[in-house]
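It is worth pausing here to work through a concrete case rather than discussing structure prediction in the abstract. The textbook approach is simple: state the sequence, then state the predicted structure, then interpret. We follow exactly that order.
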Amino acid sequence: MKAGVSEELKMLDGMARDFAARELVDEREEHDRYPFAPLYDEVLAKALEVGFFGLLLPEEAGGSAEPVSALCVVLDEICRADASLGGAIFTQALAQEIARQAGEGDLRQAAPAEDGNLREAVTAFPSYDNPAESGCRARAAMEGGEWKLYGSVEYVVLGGLVNRAILPARADGMEGYSFFLVDLDHPCASASEPVLSLGMHACPASDITLSGAPGRLLGEEGKGGDYFEAAVDRLSVAAAAMASGIMKGSFADALEYCRQREQGGRNIVDWSEVRMILSSMAVSCKVADMLVECAARAVDRGEPGWELASRAAALQAQSLAAEATSNGIQLLGGYGYMKDYGQEKRFRDAKQVQSLLGMTPLRRLAYVRRVIDGEAAW
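Step two, the predicted structure:
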């Protein structure tokens, strides 16, 4: 995402690229060993310090004039090196967007955050789930003048790392579900050990069990589905940026390997079969890059049809990334399957990113349903 972006975004792009090179590249495989190795707390704290967890905030609160484009620029660069940090940044952005859609404004004002304290400043959220599709297992009840939550919410991203989360719950007799801000340090809320996942191991998730934990209602009761769908409209393109970054990282490593690897007396990059695979990856990277840039700009400017543009960018970029990272493994041969070469991690991460905001087949059906109902397809 470089062509046609503002000088502010170009500076942000450079800062994110330098951050990734300095903090992520060399230790990528070590970070991916979590939870069987320590979490990279210092890297998360530095990402918070430079503002990567506050990109959707208003300008007066330290955000960007082009918030979604800024988020996409950072996620693209970060995910080229390690999508796990990108997942954490995306989760905070999604939680912030849910709060904004509910009329809550800046989430930082919801709890006394300390500068540089990730646990206080960041909010957990079930980023892979669409509650309307999976159903809410958590129940909300009004007791003594306040909402209390019971049941469980599965796979809450960052749930074991921070002290608050936005969680969906349904009250008895309620038509829809609602979102509640919950203090995870409360005795009636508990987080499981990190749930092992396919990819993005250093963006951990935990199951949250609630046994009467107080929750602050965000927005209106029963309107959680509306807030979620509005957030998906805006941030689908950010998920596309993550996929775009992952495939760019895969292509860059594959190209470098093919330039250095010799077989049959010449570099394998000179083989026509290898060049065909590299060509497919390069084209996919370029297409995804253009999709993300155009869709992010449409979202920030409120151009006609921006909602479907954002969703389409995610569906296509995620599909391209799954194929491109598979090709990235193929080009490295046996090395492509080894953890210390990075390609197998990118393959897993690309599949993990496909699940953001809900299951891909259901998101595709939701997309075409909106077209059938009258939204302009292009």
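Step three, interpretation. The mean pLDDT is 92. The beta strands are 139-143, 146-157, 164-171, 178-183, 189-191, 205-218, 262-263, 266-267.
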